[in-house]
Write a structure and sequence with these properties.
heterodimer; A: mainly alpha; 2 helices; B: about 375 residues; mainly alpha; 20 helices; about 75% helix
Chain lengths: ~50, ~375
């Protein structure tokens, strides 16, 4: 494989992949927040 | 008797008689790193042992990096095996608070844009004649994340470890000087004045505990070769958030991190032998490292401008500059720049979200790059 095929492949998949994975992680965070919403007891138990 | 005394005295001059100009230059470079760490306060925890290691390894006949030399032992045991950077990640995870990111997850995307410099620099390195794996190691300076850079470089281009590490840590500490001119160049005064308001979305303890587990599983399934990196960061974070292993958390963020930082710094300094370091190649790596961090900032800002456009001006593009991994320094730079143009603007928490995203983004970018290389059969 020549260096430019290598370089552009790594660059495009790398940038696209990083963006995609972080987007997926942000969605997972939203799902977690919806599934386990904050309740006042959280802070109370943290203090207690 | 006289000849014995002369021979004995000659022994005392052996080191001096073997001193070459390259050693002197490297001792000066090591001393300069000490000055940056002690005098200027730039990443002292790393630059001090790196600088001292560079001095030690350039003392003629000391043999610290030869077989059975003490620095060689540290290097072989901790760097070649990748144990040191991985343990550092454990400490980073135990010290990092991802709360701002959990409060405002969409900002995480800026942490991806802030890594694009890695890949653009890889292309530049290839254009300058570096081979594929060297280009990968040079590009990774753009992760703006020392342990990631060390992990990747020690694996694929160990001969560049000294230059890459020095570049990564030096430029990371120079973020307050590197980023502001780029921020001013790429944003308008109107954009810099955008107020983002306060984000207050409390996060439950369960979410904070599940976050590291979910991220580890999801990210590792996509990029398995990055599992040691993301896994250790998230293990550290899990110990921090679960609240039931205080001793382990304390050890990770203190004793383990401190000991490993010292040995890692010395080991990196030990790679800076005159014969290996004083090359044009090193200067090019240092220059490309600076370009990498500049490109990260550029791409983060441009992505910030895009998000500003898509949200109808609700996002201040300056926070895009914090999408790099230099945490929390980059977020502070954004806060300072934002307040120069609007005294009532508090961008810190938003920038911290982007910055935490950058920390995860840098590891994900490295993991994806390694997995792509494996997929291509290059590693």
């Amino acid at each position: 494989m020549d260096i430019w095929t290598f370089g552009w492949t790594v660059a495009l998949i790398g940038m696209g992949g990083t963006l995609l994975v972080l987007w997926l992680l942000s969605l997972l965070i939203l799902v977690l927040k919806m599934a386990f919403p904050y309740k006042a007891e959280d802070s109370a138990s943290a203090k207690g | 008797m006289e000849s014995a005394i002369v021979s004995g005295l000659q022994g005392l001059l052996l080191g001096l008689s073997h001193l070459e100009w390259g050693h002197v230059v490297m001792i000066l470079i090591g001393s300069f790193l000490l000055y940056l760490g002690i005098g200027k306060g730039f990443e002292p925890l790393l630059l001090l042992p790196i600088g001292f290691g560079a001095i030690l390894v350039n003392i003629p006949l000391a043999g610290l990096m030869e077989e059975e030399g003490v620095l060689r032992f540290f290097y072989d045991t901790g760097v070649l095996t990748e144990i040191f950077p991985i343990l550092i990640f454990l400490g980073i995870g135990a010290m990092t608070d991802f709360q701002p990111l959990l409060e405002n997850p969409k900002i995480m995307l800026l942490g991806a844009a802030g890594q694009f410099g890695i890949f653009l620099t890889l292309l530049l390195a290839l254009a300058l004649g570096f081979d594929k794996l060297e280009a990968v190691a040079i590009g990774i300076i753009g992760a703006c994340d020392g342990p990631t850079a060390i992990y990747v470089t020690s694996k694929y281009a160990p001969h560049l470890l000294g230059a890459v590490s020095v570049a990564a840590y030096s430029y990371m500490s120079l973020v307050p000087l590197i980023q502001p001119p780029i921020m001013r160049l790429l944003t308008t005064e109107r954009e810099r004045k955008i107020t983002m308001g306060v984000v207050k979305q409390p996060v439950s303890k369960t979410t904070k505990i599940l976050f590291p587990v979910v991220v580890t599983i999801a990210a590792s399934l996509v990029a398995p070769l990055g599992t040691p990196l993301i896994g250790m960061v998230m293990l550290g974070n899990l110990m921090k958030e679960c609240g039931v292993v205080e001793r382990l958390k304390h050890a990770s963020e203190n004793e383990i991190t401190n000991i490993v930082t010292l040995l890692l710094g010395l080991s990196i300094g030990a790679t800076m032998e005159a014969g290996k370091f004083l090359r044009i190649e090193t200067l090019i790596v240092l220059a490309l490292g600076l370009i990498a961090i500049g490109l990260d900032t550029v791409m983060g800002l441009l992505f910030g401008k895009l998000m500003c456009l898509l949200t109808g001006g609700k996002i201040n593009p300056l926070i895009g500059a914090a999408g790099i991994s230099a945490f929390p320094m980059s977020a502070r730079v954004v806060q300072v720049e934002g307040q120069k143009y609007n005294k009532k603007n508090y961008l810190l928490m938003h920038a911290m979200s982007a910055n935490a995203g950058g920390q995860i983004g840098s590891i994900i970018a490295a993991a994806i790059m390694l997995s792509v290389l494996a997929g291509m059969g290059i590693v």
